[in-house]
Structures are given as structure tokens and as C-alpha cells.
Amino acid sequence: METGITQAAQQPLLSKAPRTVLSGNSIPRTTSISSVSSDIVTLNAFEVRCILLQIAYMETESNVAAVSGDRLGQYLISDFVLKHYGYKNNSGWTNLDGIDTQELFLENAAVQNKILQLFFDDNYEKLIQSGAIRANDSKAVVAGMLALSYQFQDAENPNTVQTGKINNALYDLILDQANYNYNAIKCQIWRDQGSQQDSLGRAGSLFFNAGKYAVQNLAADYS
User: Fold this and answer.
1) Is the pTM of this model over 0.85?
2) pLDDT along the chain (223 residues), means of 10
3) In sequence order, which residues have a C-beta less than 8 Å from that of residue 198 and are 6 or more positions away?
């Protein structure tokens, strides 16, 4: 089933980054997504960069100093993700990469970009394992699924699970397939059923379409 992708095709992307973001002052430095299988496409560094630029534009109009609840920076990175990558712990900021205050994090676009690259690198293979990314998918679909995985960035947060924002079908799959993470399974369910929202109540089609747009439009002249 491809219910999520079918439904997403019927939803317009309302916040499209203009091509001018490609020549801005804070273009993220990115690397390609490494291949793990000959029948699954990868994304080059420029395509990854375009996904980051589209997410930043859509979330904060590329405002590096943006704050929304516990989400910070141009990509609105959650507290959970900051802890996962070692920038914070339960006591506060850890001084990783010299970041020991929120103010310093909100000034540092390079660190924010680095976290998104790490997130994509970590989740690409997990998305393949879970069936969220599949053999013979187009680059646009792979980009859409990677962006979707970031939309579900706090899916593994115990607080998200405890408040019932992960449904019973997801619980069952996680128990059966413990080598996958919550995020990858949630993306797979979205692809098959179109039923998953993020912790802010937004439909998965939002970021899936953003990823597709990044590769098909922003990166069109370079891929």
C-alpha cells in the first residue's frame, strides 16, 4: 500500500523555499547519503543540502535563532534530539562543539546543520530496514521519507509514547521488530496507511512533500 504517498500527492506544499536560498549567507555544508544497496537510490550532497534548506525555510523562514517551546534553531530541533546527539543532558548543555548555552546554540548555524546531517545519516538505513524506503524508489520519494523522519524527530521520546501519541499499531510493530526504531516504523506506517501525525498534530504529508520539492525543484538544475 502507498496510502500516505497517494494522499500527499493531493496536498499542496504551501511554504516553498525560493531558489534564492541557494545563494544565501548560511548555506549548510552537507555530505551525500551513503549507499547501502544497489537497488535503492542515494542522495548527493547538494540534494541533502536542499532538503535542509527547505525544512529551515518551512519551519522558521531560515531563522537560526528561532525558539518554539523546547525546539530550537532554524530547523526547530527538539530537546530530545539535542540530548540524543549529546548536546544536552538532564543537567543542561554539555559543551559539545563548544555549545554550553542556548544562546550559543542559537548563534551557530553550522552545529544546527551538523545535527540534521547526523539525523539523516542515522535514519537512512533504518528507514530501509523498516520498509519506509524501498527498492526502486525515486530520489524524490527517498528525500520525502528522510524529511518525514525528521518531522517525527521525537517519536522515540518516552514522553511522546506515554502521552499516547504513538498508536497501538506502532507499539505492536516496535515489539515485533526491535531492531528498528520508533521513527522508522512510524514512517513505514505513514507510507502504508497515511495515518501518522507528528507530536504537534501535523500530517506527515507536510514534510514528505517538502523533501520531494527540495529534490525536484530546488536541486533540479544540479542533480
Assistant:
1) yes
2) 94 94 79 84 94 97 96 97 95 98 97 96 92 95 97 80 48 48 89 90 96 96 60
3) 151, 152, 154, 204
- Looking at the chain, how many residues does it have? 223
Q: What's the CA gap between 124 and 63, in Å, rounded?
A: 26
Instruction: Please choose, from the candidates 29, 18, 42, the residue with its C-alpha nearest in 3D space to the C-alpha of residue 146.
Output: 42
Distance in angstroms (rounded) separating the CA atoms of residues 30 and 97: 17
Cell digits for 186? 512510524
Task: Enumerate residues 6+ apart whose C-beta is below 8 A from 164.
Answer: none
Q: Which three cell numbers stand for residue 220?
A: 533540479
Instruction: Tell me which amino acid residue 223 is.
Output: S
Which three cell numbers, joined as nine digits, stand for 124? 537512512
Q: Assign 67 to helix, strand or coil.
A: strand
